[in-house]
Automatic annotation (TrEMBL):
It holds the Pfam family YfiO. The keyword Hydrolase does not apply. Part of the outer membrane protein assembly complex, which is involved in assembly and insertion of beta-barrel proteins into the outer membrane. It is found in: Cell outer membrane. Residues 36-231 form the Outer membrane lipoprotein BamD-like domain. Part of the Bam complex. This is Outer membrane protein assembly factor BamD. It comes from the Bacteria. Its main location: membrane.
Amino acid sequence: MAFGRFLVRGAGGVLLAVTLAACGSSNRDVPLDNFSAEEIFRRGEYELETSRRAGTAVSYFSEVERLYPYSDWARRALIMQAYAHHRDREYEEARAAAQRFLDFYPADEDAPYAQYLLALSYYDQIDAIGRDQGLTFQALQALRAVIERYPDSEYARSAVLKFDLAFDHLAAKEMEIGRYYLRRGHYAAAINRFRVVVEDFQTTTHTAEALHRLVEANLALGLTDEAQTAAAILGYNFQSSPFYEDSFRLLNGRGLAPEARGDGWLSQVYRQTVRGDWL
């Protein structure tokens, strides 16, 4: 990680940071422009390592940028600002710093890390399924940028894993809303939500349940062809799933069996996923 490369290394670096700390504690009116870019940067590192909050560290890194804007230390200070803000869960500020780094240093070796931090600033705010999913979409876009722009970086694999989790999160949101409608007898609205999962999120862990709920909702509306087709897809792809057993019992109780019938959207899904007919 970029942060690790910038930490104080060796006794000399520690001494420099401690010396500057002592100067700051004895005379806080000494202007920072009396110090070199490295001295100010090391002070920022020292504050970052020894303080629970990163605000003071960020101020030092900002001063490096202000006083020595075209130096290598300014570049390092900018990525450290992004890291420090993210550590303190100041996600908007972390995004802003990471984006500035990408704007100023798009070809730098730390650009993959800046893009990854930008993605994390969205991803780490994804929590309860019930929240607005705008952050999830933004996290997916930023994670995709890491994967596509920096496929050989050390952050690509982590980005792929987080992308899959965020994608699954969106499917979970659709399922939550679909179940809500289903429980209240709004079957058409429920079907629309479960259809989104089957068509747009078919690689997630929610597909089997979505197909089962389609069996339930379509049976409730008397749409037996659709219910049987949903069960047929479920049986082909998830035969060992408890959801298939539940769907089979529902159909069997009405003298029906899982099989593709009719020419609706589920029949098209059946032709594509089971028969491999995409035309």
